[in-house]
Every structure is written in structure tokens, then in C-alpha cells.
Design brief:
Low-confidence stretches: 1-15
Number of strands: 8
Keywords: Lyase
Enzyme class: lyase
Number of helices: 12
Pfam family, one: DHDPS
Strand order of the largest sheet: 1-8-7-6-5-4-3-2
Largest sheet: 8 strands, parallel
InterPro entries: Aldolase_TIM, DapA-like
Protein name: Dihydrodipicolinate synthase family protein
Order of helices and strands: HEHEHEHEHEHEHEHEHHHH
């Protein structure tokens, strides 16, 4: 895959480890989170999944995150998560960098990370620890155990904990130089700006983890990439926002923001209850996959489907 590395000051290279130049560059862009389509019997649909990946790749997307939240990570079985990772690496080939989502307990996350490495993926994204009691030092220990198990891979913590300090991320990276980026998903641009500077603004690639709605404000504070579920529906729209943000053209970026605003409001409503549902509904309206999602999500009620279909059709896909 050919990418252009963003201009930045890099952390010193550690002897015996790669510099992760290509992985860092891949994070500084649209980091797509593919949906996981299901067949009529409820199983993962490999052929449809491959077709959706090809659509992303043909649309110019060069970084894919299988087993992300838009892919219903927590609703998939361990064997399904492995299958999704395998299909992604096979279908993408050298056309995209692969950032595999891993998580759950430490042994499960480590096994998933090693599986991703053995497949040929370049990076893993570590989902936020799902535990009612997360201490700051325990957060470091959790991520360190995973990162140390796969020193060959770039590691990207998925950060949703507003209590975590930037100093803790710096502590983790001191121990694990393969922690190269952060998917920052705390909905507070001022907190992000402070956190990034406390951790080391130039030390990591900062990815706006709340997708297009937050990308302009987070880019203004130092992010160079953003995640996207919307990209499943309209790759050109996500790339248009990226191009505007890279060039510092915030008026154009905000025009794209207005274009996607209603779609993202529908996804964010009721505590993001329909986050994946709305994306799959848009894809279903285009005839690209079935609308079914797994509990605790639910398909969009019939009365709300027409609005999503109209939005998707209006993007001239």
C-alpha cells in the first residue's frame, strides 16, 4: 500500500523494533470501521462482507478496522471475530492497512492480537476495558500486557475514559514503544487537547474516535485521522471531509459536517442506541446488505426507515 506519512516529530526508534512509519501514516486518515453483515440465518455473511470491503477499497479507503464497534464486536463470538479478521486481511491484500479490534479479558485480547499478527495485520486496536472498576494503573497494566505480547504490531488504545490522564498514556508508551496512536473517543474537544499535550502531541498519531461529527474540532486540536462508520455508506463523503481538514479548509469541512449531520444525529440518539442500526439500514436501502443487527441493538422500526434511505440516496452514491 502506498501512503504519504504525515509531517510530525516521531518518538525515538527503539533498537530491535520497527519504526512503524507505515502504520502511523495509515492512522492519519479515514480509519474505516466495516459493518459485519449477517445472513438470513443470523450467521456472519462472508460473501457480503467481502463485497462491502471491496466497495470501501474501490472507494479509496486505505485503513480498515475489522472487529470495531460498528462491526458489532461485542455481539460476535470468538470464532466469528477470527473469521472477520481473516476475511479482511485476505480481501484487502496490500490495498489497505489492517487495524484489528481486540479486547475482553487479557488472555482473550492477547490471543486475538497474536492471531492478527499471524494473519499479517499491521496493527491492533485495544477496545476500552469492559469492567466496572478501572484504575489508572490497571489501565496501563491491561494495555501493556497486550502490547508486550505483539511487539511487532502497532498498538492503538481505544480511549473512552475521561478520567484517564495523559501521563498514564505516556507511561504505557515508555514501556511499550509499539503504542503508536490513540483512538480518542471522549466527547470533549478541550479535554482532548489537554490530554494529547500531556501525553505528547507529537509522540502519537491522534485519531478522532467519535467520527466525522467531532473530526473538525479534534483536528483543530491536533488529531490527524478520524474513525468512520458512515464510510460504509458513502466513502466519498468521508474522504471529502478528510481532504478539507488536511488542507485546513474548515469552512468546506463544515459543509460536509452539515451534509452528514442528520444521519449522525440519528445514530447518536438515545445514547447511540441505533449507532450501527442506522448504518446497516442505509446499506439495506442501497441493496448492499441485510439490515439485521444483534441484541442488544435492534433493527430500525419501519416508520423510521424512509428518512435513512432518503439521506443515503441524497449522497448520490
Amino acid at each position: 500500500m502506498t501512503t504519504t506519512s504525515p509531517t510530525r516529530t516521531r518518538a525515538p526508534r527503539t533498537a530491535g523494533l520497527p519504526s512503524f512509519e507505515a502504520q502511523r501514516a495509515a492512522l492519519a486518515g479515514v480509519v474505516a470501521i466495516p459493518v459485519t453483515p449477517f445472513a438470513e440465518d443470523g450467521s456472519v455473511d462472508p460473501d457480503t462482507y467481502r463485497a462491502l470491503l471491496r466497495r470501501l477499497l474501490d472507494g479509496g479507503i486505505t485503513t480498515l478496522t475489522p472487529n470495531g464497534n460498528t462491526g458489532e464486536f461485542y455481539a460476535l463470538t470468538p470464532s466469528e471475530r477470527r473469521l472477520v479478521a481473516e476475511l479482511t486481511v485476505e480481501e484487502a491484500g496490500d490495498r489497505a492497512a489492517i487495524l484489528v479490534g481486540v479486547g475482553h479479558d487479557v488472555p482473550t485480547a492477547v490471543a486475538s492480537a497474536r492471531h492478527a499478527r499471524d494473519l499479517g495485520a499491521q496493527m491492533v486496536m485495544v477496545h476500552q476495558p469492559v469492567h466496572p472498576y478501572v484504575s489508572q494503573s490497571g489501565w496501563v497494566d491491561y494495555h501493556r500486557a497486550i502490547a508486550e505480547a505483539v511487539p511487532e504490531l502497532g498498538v492503538v488504545p481505544y480511549l473512552r475514559n475521561a478520567q484517564l490522564t495523559g501521563a498514564r498514556l505516556a507511561e504505557l508508551a515508555d514501556a511499550c514503544p509499539n503504542v503508536i496512536g490513540v483512538k480518542y473517543a471522549v466527547p470533549d474537544a478541550a479535554r482532548f487537547a489537554a490530554f494529547a499535550r500531556d501525553a505528547g502531541l507529537e509522540r502519537f498519531v491522534w485519531v478522532a474516535g467519535l467520527a466525522e461529527p467531532y473530526a473538525p474540532s479534534y483536528f483543530s486540536a491536533g488529531a490527524t485521522g478520524f474513525t468512520s462508520g458512515l464510510v460504509n455508506v458513502a466513502p466519498s463523503v468521508s474522504l471529502a471531509m478528510l481532504e478539507a481538514l488536511r488542507s485546513g479548509d474548515y469552512p468546506t469541512a463544515m459543509k460536509v459536517w452539515e451534509q452528514i449531520r442528520r444521519f449522525e444525529e440519528l445514530r447518536a440518539a438515545n445514547g447511540s442506541a441505533n449507532n450501527v442500526t442506522v448504518v446497516k439500514e442505509a446499506l439495506a436501502s442501497l441493496g448492499l446488505c441485510r439490515r439485521e443487527v444483534r441484541p442488544p441493538s435492534r433493527p430500525l422500526p419501519e416508520s423510521e426507515r424512509a428518512e435513512v434511505a432518503a439521506i443515503a440516496a441524497g449522497w448520490s452514491i
